[in-house]
Amino acid sequence: MSYTKSIIIFSVVFFLMSSLTSMAKTSYVTITLPEDVVMQSIQDALPLSIEPQNDHVEGTLVIDSISRLEMKDNGIFLQGQVLGSNMVVSTRIGDQDLRMRIGEFRFPLTCDLTFRYDSSRKILFITPHIVRPEKTLKANNANAILPVLTLLDKREYPVSLAHLQGFNTVIGQRKYSVVMEPVDVQVSKSQVVLKMVPKVSKRN
């Protein structure tokens, strides 16, 4: 069990023990995840697949490593490394469709991430604002990377939070199933704040 999940379960159980008998529909649990916990959780999940939200990009992209993460109001500054394989970029020049085969590449990633949470759809939208590679990169690497960065930059990537994994717990002699419903996600300096409504049901 991950450290982040342990914090969430502990907080929910504490909440249930203190207010289960008088829980209102508007009651929610606030979970604060500090920057180092977020960093560790992301590193534990590596490699992370990137699904291009663009019909002009084909292939496999993964975030292979994270070397730096700094949280700020509604944003995260991120540095790491991205691996690409079987990459193809399609473009149109005049009346001709062109397909540029990039193949395999590895490049350092520096970007600012901004966030927008749609509570009705329970989707967290993440938008990368990518810093272009430094001029120290070899010319052939830069020429291969820039078309990919251009197509990935400043696009919203949806992350569904509608199916967060629930858990079971025992309070006294009774067994309960708890499913978490996220109502808000806030990113601020050095922390992420999750607001969730626990949906509790008794188990036989």
Any chance you could write out the topology, listing elements then pairs?
Layout: H1 3-19, E1 29-34, H2 35-45, E2 48-50, E3 57-72, E4 75-93, E5 96-118, E6 123-130, H3 139-152, E7 157-160, E8 167-171, E9 174-188, E10 191-203
Antiparallel strand pairs: 1-10, 2-3, 3-4, 4-5, 5-6, 6-7, 8-9, 9-10
Structure described in brief:
The protein is an alpha+beta fold. It has helices spanning 3-19, 35-45, 139-152, and strands at residues 29-34, 48-50, 57-72, 75-93, 96-118, 123-130, 157-160, 167-171, 174-188, 191-203.
Work out the count of structural domains. Answer: 1
Count of alpha and pi helical runs: 3
- Strand residue percentage: over 45%
Low-confidence stretches: 16-25
User: How do the helices and strands follow one another from N- to C-terminus?
Assistant: HEHEEEEEHEEEE
Walk me through the structure.
This protein is α+β, with helices and mostly antiparallel strands. The protein has one domain (3-160). It is 21% helix and 55% strand. The protein has three helices and ten strands, in the order H-E-H-E-E-E-E-E-H-E-E-E-E. The chain has helices at 3-19, 35-45, 139-152; strands at 29-34, 48-50, 57-72, 75-93, 96-118, 123-130, 157-160, 167-171, 174-188, 191-203. The protein has a six-stranded antiparallel sheet. A four-stranded antiparallel sheet has the order 1-10-9-8. A hairpin with a 2-residue loop joins strand 9 (174-188) and strand 10. It is elongated. Residues 16-25 have low confidence and may be disordered.
